[in-house]
Design a protein that fits this description.
The protein is an alpha+beta fold. Helix content is about 30%, strand content about 25%.
Length: about 160
Amino acid sequence: MRKTHATALLTFGLLALGLTGCSPIVAQRGNLVEDSRLTQIQTGQTTREQVQYVLGTPTSTGVIDGSTWYYIGRRTEQTAFLDPEVTAERIIRVRFDEGGTVQEIKELDGAAEAAYVEPVARVTPTVGHDLNFFEQLLGNLSKPARKKKDDKKKKK
């Protein structure tokens, strides 16, 4: 009777331990702006300082003049060894006029408006030749050890 309880308890414990490894790992990157904070910003009234106080520091700013701020955020969940899955994604663009007040607030659709950039698989050429495994391993055996100038001073 005791062996049955011990076996059942051990099996249940191992099963519970295995299931804890399947709990998802949640990672949030950037700034996911909530709707309650966005409602505090009014077009034509809110200044840059007020936007930064309410929404925080922008994730990115416009390249040309800096009058556009972007708040980009993404939340992903990954279970065990599977690929991460995007559960929430939001991109908010805030444009300012010359006076520093909000001109426009717009939520961008990241999937539709983002452009995929394909990486280039080129290799940068270098001077010399590539050493193979044995040249790297045995390369220093034929070279005599060089003494440093400071070694003579240390011996005195």
